[in-house]
Structure formats: structure tokens, C-alpha cells
From TrEMBL:
Residues 411-466 form the AGC-kinase C-terminal domain. It comes from Smittium megazygosporum. Keywords: ATP-binding, Kinase, Nucleotide-binding, Serine/threonine-protein kinase, Transferase. The keyword Kinase applies. Residues 156-410 form the Protein kinase domain. One of its GO terms (molecular function) is cAMP-dependent protein kinase activity. Residues 1-15, 55-66 have a biased composition (Polar residues). This is cAMP-dependent protein kinase. ATP binds at residue 185.
């Protein structure tokens, strides 16, 4: 679920570090060192040489759903077609892709025990020689912009659930006096404490309150009662990108390019404040009513001026250095961007395996196959993003993100226009009203009572900033 901890593909933050270390050592000593990217039956392919969350479901076709104001989309002054043959591609896939999509049509949870990880709190594993001294960097936890407005629960009418997760659910609410709609993330204090996620939740609140980007969901206020904490978020009515990939099977290159570019801007914004996102996936990308992207679920986001060791994320999107329990930095988000581009254009993630052990083997070996329809220029960028070699990974080199923004696949993108949202999105979600929830899946409703008085005990004190 895009705005809880979540009902989507498994992202994780618990387990036994000893078991993990043993598993990884076996992988490293076993098959993991043998494969290579673009390998098929042991033979390398040069096809892509250099130069070449949370909600949602509905049944409308792309023809009904995409913006019909014009058949050509301008991303930077040159025309990018999303009509004709490309439109047909949205409703077709190779047999290989179809089989995988049928297998993985379920969402990936953001909190599971499938991946063995350490039970450590956020910030306990940060190593920094710079101590946030880089020019322009602020300590978000201490910055006044990270403070939030205290909300009165009795001012809101609670509507249907649009997502569920390990710690709670997201419900749509509207203000009794203004009529404005919000998505309220309701999380159980007991579950948060039991899972040792108090610091992560507090950090998520701080990061969301601090962020001011058109491509990141906004936090308007918080509160707590005896049993739960509440985050009142911008309501994004278009649903998850995961829903649209599931519906159309895959995106043509121009459509994937538009979304990848907006995601890049959101990640670049976070990185400018030394924040690593660490949970990029289609389930955590919401499509706003105007068709633009909103990054959500910042539960694993963390300000890291140097490196961190916390093992968390979604298995399909984990960078090799995270699996190997190595220290890592911002480059893991650029790795995940490469995986996202592949999934948007193929309909499934590059290393997909139902068995997580086999999945990690493939990630460590960088072993995946290119669909025959894959745009070779996009493939070249993906290859440079998902490389396990940090000395070659785009976004981690001396030119930083410029190696990505200046890549041939993005050459027609006018980044200034894109950042100011002056580019017409390829898909405009159908929405009947501001509070429309038709783009989201149906979830069992809860009959919990909210607003009980606080006990003002140690448990309540853990969430004093809410």
C-alpha cells in the first residue's frame, strides 16, 4: 500500500542476522559469481552495448484511460508517440512476460520475514566522517521544517480503506468544515513497538514533514490516540503505478521514460539532503489526478551523510551490496531505478524468482534476460544502473546524477519543464471527484474506534512528535 508499511511486495526489516550471513556466504561461494548480465544459456549477449505501495485497481483499458488531448506527447520539444503501435503494446506481452506477470500479480509487502535482516533501529548504523557538514545539508531531525501540525481527529469523517499493511491501514477522510480529502495513515503503536520500528516511523514523519517536492506526497498533520498514530497525507486519487503495469502488462518506452524521469527528480531531491529512499517500486509510486507521479511510503527513508548497513527494502529491488550486508549509500536508489525501468518496460522485474534464495543468487550474479521487444537505448541505461560494480554504476560516479540525465534515452527530456510539471503526462486517471476511490483495490474494513484519550505513559512518549 503506497502510504502504509504496506500491503505490497515484501520489503523487510526483521529477522536473524546470523542466518542471513550464512545464506549470503553460501551464495557468494556458490553460483553467484558465475553469471553475467544479459546471459542466456551461458552465452553473453552484446545487445545493449554502450551507445546503443498504495492502492488501486480498475478495469478501464488504456484507450479509455490515457490522455486523449493529443496523440503525440512532448517530453522535451521532440515528439514521443504513445498512440498506434505503442498503444497496442500496452495490451500485449511476450509469452515469457505473460507467464511471469500471472505469477507475480500480487503486490509486494513492505514488511515481511522472508528476508532475514537485523533488528536495529534507524540511525544506529550510520557511519559519517562528514557529520552533515556538506554545503547545503541540514540535520532533518533537528530542522524546524520537520515539525508537524497537531490534528484533531474529531474534525474528520473517516471513509473507506484504500490500503492495508503490517502496522495498520490507510483510510480516506474528509474535513467536516472544508470538505478537503486526505489519506490518513493509521498505525498500531503495539505493532510498531513489537517490530522495533519506532525510530523508522519517527524518521518517516520527520522526512515527510521536511520534504517539499512536487513529486513526493505531502504530510499535512499528525496526531496519536491511545492505540494508534495518525499521519494525514495528501490524497492521491489515481492509484498505484503497480495497478497500471498490471493492467497494461508493460509500458512502451516513451511512457516508461516519462515516469522514470519524474521518479529521478524525486530521488534527486531526496539525495540533495542526504536522504536515501530505499524502497523504490511501482507500489510506492502513486499517479495523481493530473497524471504526475507522487513518491510515497517513506518508511525506510533515512538521512545518511556517508554509509549505512541496515538491511531493508523489497527483495526484487535490493542492490547486491545490501544483500551482502556491505555498507552502502545513495547508489542503491539508482540501482532500484534501473530495476524499475526494466519492470515498467518488461512487465516484470529483471531478476524475478518466487524463491527468494534463487532471487538473491540472480541479483548477486547480475543474471537476467532481455525481452526481445526491449528498447536497446533504455537497455543500455538499465545495464549501467543495475551493475553490481559501484565504480561503474551511473549515479555513483564523479558526474553524479548527470550521467543518468544526460544519457541518450533521456536526451529529449526538458528537465526544467518536467520539474515544473509543464509536460502532459501519458496517462490521466479517471476520477469522478476529489475523494474518488475507484482506482484502488477493495480491502476489508476495520471497525476500530479512534480518538481515545492518551494514557501519557512510556508508550505514548515514544511518539511525542505526533
Amino acid at each position: 500500500m503506497g502510504q502504509t508499511n504496506s500491503s505490497t511486495r515484501d520489503a523487510t526489516q526483521h529477522g536473524s542476522p546470523k542466518r542471513l550471513s550464512t545464506d549470503i556466504r553460501k551464495l557468494i561461494k556458490g553460483k553467484s559469481g558465475k553469471g553475467s548480465e544479459g546471459t542466456k544459456k551461458g552465452k553473453k549477449t552484446d545487445k545493449f552495448k554502450k551507445g546503443a505501495g498504495q492502492y488501486g485497481n480498475s478495469s478501464e483499458s488504456y484507450q479509455e484511460n490515457h490522455n486523449t488531448q493529443e496523440d503525440e506527447r512532448t517530453i522535451a520539444g521532440s515528439q514521443l508517440s504513445v498512440g498506434g503501435a505503442d498503444d497496442q503494446n500496452l495490451n500485449q506481452s511476450t509469452s515469457h512476460a505473460s507467464n511471469i506477470v500471472k505469477t507475480k500479480s500480487h503486490k509486494r509487502n513492505s514488511n515481511t520475514q522472508n528476508l532475514k535482516v537485523t533488528d536495529i533501529e534507524v540511525d544506529s548504523d550510520v557511519k559519517s566522517t562528514s557529520q552533515l557538514s556538506r554545503k547545503g545539508t541540514v540535520d532533518i531531525l533537528k530542522d524546524p521544517r520537520s515539525k508537524t501540525t497537531r490534528v484533531n481527529l474529531h474534525d474528520y469523517l473517516f471513509s473507506r480503506t484504500v490500503g492495508t499493511g503490517s502496522f495498520g491501514r490507510v483510510r480516506v477522510v474528509n474535513h467536516k468544515h472544508t470538505g478537503k480529502h486526505y489519506a490518513v495513515k493509521i498505525l498500531s503503536k503495539q505493532q510498531i513497538i513489537k517490530s522495533k520500528q519506532v525510530a523508522h516511523i519517527n524518521a518517516e514523519r520527520s522526512v515527510l514533514a521536511f520534504c517539499d517536492s512536487p513529486f513526493i506526497v505531502k504530510l499535512y498533520g499528525t496526531t496519536q490516540d491511545r492505540n494508534n498514530i495518525f499521519m494525514f497525507l495528501e490524497y492521491v486519487s489515481g492509484g498505484e503505478m503497480f495497478t497500471y503495469i498490471r493492467r497494461y502488462k508493460r509500458f512502451p518506452s516513451p511512457v516508461a521514460k516519462f515516469y522514470a524521469a519524474e521518479v529521478l527528480l524525486s530521488i534527486r531531491y531526496l539525495h540533495s539532503y542526504d536522504i536515501i529512499y530505499r524502497d523504490l517500486k511501482p507500489e510506492n509510486l502513486l499517479i495523481a489526478a493530473d497524471g504526475h507521479i507522487k513518491l510515497t511510503d517513506l518508511g525506510f527513508a533515512k538521512q545518511v551523510p556517508d554509509i549505512t548497513w541496515t538491511l531493508c527494502g523489497t527483495p526484487d529491488y535490493l542492490a547486491p551490496e545490501i544483500i551482502q550486508s556491505k555498507g552502502y549509500g545513495k547508489s542503491v536508489d539508482w540501482y532500484s531505478l534501473g530495476v524499475l525501468i526494466f519492470e515498467m518496460m518488461a512487465g516484470y522485474p529483471p531478476f524475478y524468482e518466487q524463491d527468494h534464495r534463487k532471487l538473491y543468487e540472480r541479483i548477486l550474479a547480475n543474471r537476467f534476460q532481455w525481452p526481445p521487444h526491449f528498447d536497446p537505448v533504455a537497455g543500455n541505461l538499465v545495464r549501467n544502473l543495475v551493475t553490481p560494480d559501484l565504480t561503474k554504476r551511473f549515479g555513483n560516479l564523479i558526474n553524479g546524477v548527470s550521467d543518468i540525465t544526460s544519457h541518450e534515452w533521456f536526451q529529449e527530456v526538458n528537465w526544467e519543464k518536467l520539474e515544473s510539471k509543464k509536460i502532459v503526462p501519458p496517462i490521466i486517471p479517471k476520477s469522478r471527484s476529489e475523494g474518488d476511490t475507484s482506482n484502488f483495490d477493495n480491502y476489508p474494513e476495520s471497525h476500530d474506534t479512534y480518538g481515545q484519550d492518551l494514557d501519557y505513559d512510556e508508550e505514548d512518549a515514544l511518539f511525542a512528535d505526533f
